[in-house]
Amino acid sequence: MDTAGYCKWGGGSQDLPGGHWGRWEHCKQRFFFLALLLLVATILWAFILSLLLSKASVERRALVGQQDLLETNASEQTVVLGALKEEVGACNSCCLGTKAKLQTTLTELGETQIKVLQQESALKELQERVTQGLAEAGRDRENVRTELFRVLEGIKFQNGSCEPCPKSWLTFQGSCYFFSEPPSSWEAAQRLCANLSAHLVIIEGLEEQGFLSLHTRGLGYWLGLRAVRHSGEVQSYKWIDGVPLSFSHWNTGEPNDSRRQEDCVMMLHSGLWNDAPCNSKMDGCICEKRRSCYP
Fold this sequence. Notes:
This protein is α+β, with helices and mostly antiparallel strands. The chain is built from three helices and eight strands, in the order αββαβαβββββ. It starts with 18 loop residues before the first helix and ends in a 5-residue tail after the last strand. The relative contact order is 0.09. The chain crosses the membrane at residues 31-53. It holds the Pfam family Lectin_C. One of its GO terms (molecular function) is virus receptor activity.
């Protein structure tokens, strides 16, 4: 076969008319067409690349602008942060000074409070002493009055210068005693005696105790004696006139302040004393008042 009659392009052969020059023209046309396609593709790629480069340039400028703005903001924030640090440092220094002053003030306040409490304690103790002294003075006055009454009673008994005790009242050493047997609470018993111009009995010694023991019945009888508590504990006992207890006649094992509720004192039918709850209504009472005498 004669290969001169063919133009090979792209792996194929084509038999063209015109001989050698025909084949050359055909190949030339193909080269031109390919060159044109290559030129068009190159132009397109150049155009696309220019667009991409232009867009990249714009974005780069934007990024650079943002970077500059961020750097400016960062610089400003650094300045602000420095100022805040200075303010915080100054505040911390001020707070430390204020804290020290407050601590000093608290210490002084604590010391002042302790002094005030000490003064209150001393004042309360002084008040109790004055009250006790007044009560003892009143008791001494009553004792003197009793002795004078004995003398007056012995001297003036025949001329009737002393008023007799009311009916149903008993007489002993210038006092009148009333044994009330309807049971009542300690407070109710004190009101009953007050309504009779008297008070719950105050026992000053063994002689008076013996006299009262002779007239007790099957009941118990409230006395004018109550407990004095501090912090829930019984510290002492006082008569209703404020005089501390000196003479006592307790029953065995008494006072025991059962359940920390026994603040009042009553006399058993045996004459012995017992502490009991003030709201108990199982006991009567003994009222006492002085006889009135005239010169």
